Structures are given as C-alpha cells and as structure tokens.
# Entry
Amino acid sequence: MRETPRPQGTAGDTGSELPLHRPGRAFAHTTGASGSGTPHRSDGRPPHTPRGARQTGPAVRSGTTPPVPERAALLVSVVSGLLALFALTTWQIAADGPLRRLDERTGRALVGHGPARLTEFLADLGNTQIALPVLGCAIVWSLLRGARREPFTAALTMAAVPLLVVPLKDWVARPGPLTDATGYYPSGHAATAAVAYGAAALLLAPYVRRAWMMPVATVLLTGATGIGLVLRGYHWPLDVLGSWFLCGLLLLPLGLSRRKPLGPGVGPGLSCRSRRRSSSRMPSC
# Structure
C-alpha cells in the first residue's frame, strides 16, 4: 500500500520554521523589530504590558492630582471677587473712609436729576409689591414645567435677603442722603430687585428661545432701580453697589443648581410619555 505523499512544504517540518503568511490575516505575534525573537503584538506593543507602564492619558501623570476644572476655578474667582468688593465697601462706609466721602459727594451731586415721575417709577421697581409678584410668577411657571429644586432655591434666596440686609443696616447705621435717619446701607430696595429679577431670570431662562435675553433684562431692571434710588435721594451710590455685591453671592447657588430642560418646551420633571408626545425626535426613555 503506497503512502500518500505529503506537500513538499510540510514534509519533514520540525516546527522550527515560521508559519507562512496568508493574505488578509494578521499574526497574533511576530518577532521583535530588533531581531531578538521576542514576540510582539501586531500593533508593536508587548504582549503583556506591565500595569505601571501603561499610559492613562496625556494629561494624567503618576503621583499627581488632576487639574482643577475651569468651571470650578471661575466659580472661585467670582466668589472671591464679590466677597472682596462687598467687604471693601462695607469697611469703607463703616470706618468713614475716603470711598465713603467720595460716595457722598457724588450722591449729593446726583440727587434731583432726571424727570421726577420717571425716576420715582424706577425706584419703585425695588418695592416688594412689584418685585415679589414677578418672582412668584416665575416660581409657579417653573413648577408647572416640572422643576422642583430650582423654585425652592429661589424662594430661599429671596427669604435670605431681609435676614442679611436688616442686621447690616443696624450695624452700619448709615444716614440717608436727605435725612438724618440711619439704616441705609445696604439698600433693601436694590437687594430686593436684584434677587427677585435675577432669580426669575434664572428660572425662566431654560424655557425661552433666546435665553440671553434673561440676564440682559435682569441687568436693565436692577440697574434702573439703582439709578432711580440714587436720583431720588433714597440711597447713596455705594448703598446700591453693596447690595448688588451681596446679592450676587446669594444668587450663585441658584445659578449652579439650574438645569437645562430635556427638550424644547419640556420641563425636566415630565414623564417619558409626555416627552415623546412633545417631540418625536427625542430619544426613547
């Protein structure tokens, strides 16, 4: 019985030769580039990379802490700046510093300027009878859109205004521009306008098409209130500025807690069924 002849390339093969390369297939291990015979992967890396030699990323190094996010650094800068400005203003007024004397000269020069009816109307924008209903409507609207945490934070922020402003008024005991009565720093009307209109803008911004209009409206309303208070002689300029610095700090938690809605006209607390009804392009829940 005759033996079947083997292929010429495999007859007498002892396993010492490398396997033939087949087109379209990659070798799991090849000889090293240095010719040392050390097996390497097809991508040039060793088959077993030690854990300590692995690269985790270009920005992370062994033994170092990750860098501080830009948002956190910006937040720290804003808080530090507002605190420094408020502390400087309060110190100058309480200690009868040069800024207070300059502020009083400027205030006396500005009192009585502008149309009386217009400046009175602008000053009245800081009344609780006007500012609080605006904030209340914004809170109700955000609650109807499904928000829960943001309206609660806005209400707490507004409640914190008299708790902070009234003790400061009693402690500084600054007289007003047209009266010897004390308790004019910081301005309660300016603080009420800044927090009410600022919080309302933060609550409504996620649900309007042009969100940039909300901070613009806040700046216009609070600025107009401060101008009216100074021109009518109800407060010194630094009374208004000190309130703005303080209220900027109060509004920061609300600005950080604000969330974007899940879609156009959709509140963050609506159910998946409501989201699918409002927009067919939204992802499935």
User: Anything to note?
Assistant: The chain is about 55% helix and 0% strand. The chain has a mean pLDDT of 78. The beta strands are 30-31, 39-40.
